Amino acid sequence: MTAAPVTVSTLRKMKTSSEKIAVLTAYDATFAHVLDDAGVEVILVGDSLGMVVQGRESTVSVSMDDMVYHTRAVAQGRKNSLLMADMPFMSYATVEDGLHNAARLMQEGGAHMVKLEGNANQVEIVARLTANGVPVCAHLGLRPQFVHKIGGYRVQGRDEQSARGLMSDAVALEAAGADLLLLECVPQNLAADITQRVSIPVIGIGAGVHCDGQVLVLHDLLGVTPGQRPRFSKDFLADGGSVYQAVVEYVQAVKEGTFPGPDHSFN
Ligand code: KIV
Questions:
Q1: 8-264: in CATH 2.130.10.10
Q2: What does the DSSP assignment read for the chain?
Q3: Per-residue pLDDT tens for 113-128?
Q4: Spans of all domains in the chain
């Protein structure tokens, strides 16, 4: 990996030079250290910790204190990877709350960027955060914090109207100052169109191989998530070796464009 710390401008340059960005979640210092060593450019302290660490049914129960605690732990283990932390459910329902809680993630947790699940409704908070020096990743498509509103986890943007909506949300969020987009569970052709249309990097999960980078939940990559593995994930530890080697293979597969394959993508 690049010996220098990864910054927002590193990620922009990677998009320009068509070098794929490898992103992975971590929730503690030890795994953050492994990911950083293995060349992961961005470590995400995802609110998926509600499910894979706390054993809850969804991410909705995760609190700001939980996020600050795990972000601070990950910050101790990373060296060069950029540290992105999730804004949990309802922590940005008002602009004031969003500003206050993003400041906590950066000042108490040591995050370099925050991620929020947003569409055009979050344009104002994205604009205010970025105007105040907070880099933002906007998470579009399947937004797990909305699980109770949408009634389950399903692919988004399959019909023409919602595909158009996703495209215009992406454009609006870039115009508001977002530094990164994350697309979860959207058809691969739509993800490819959005990636081409915006000039900020687009990270995919269940969004096909044409995004500028990929993200997975660490527990899925290691094959230890209880229950059925999400279709878009892959167990990189299955072929043996070590946790470190599994992460190295993931980074390599992302860079070479061999992950995700058609079996991990939606049409
Ligand atoms: O919370 C998380 O880990 C995420 C990833 C699934 C992208 O948002």
A1: no
A2: --SSPP-HHHHHHHHHTTPPEEEEE--SHHHHHHHHHHT-SEEEE-TTHHHHTT--SSSTT--HHHHHHHHHHHHHH-SSSEEEEEPPTTTTSSHHHHHHHHHHHHHTT--SEEEEE-SGGGHHHHHHHHHTT--EEEEEES-GGGHHHHTS------SHHHHHHHHHHHHHHHHTT-SEEEEES--HHHHHHHHHH-SS-EEEESS-TTSSEEEE-HHHHTT--SSSPPTT---TTTTSS-HHHHHHHHHHHHHHT-SS-GGG---
A3: 999 998 889 999 999 9
A4: 8-264
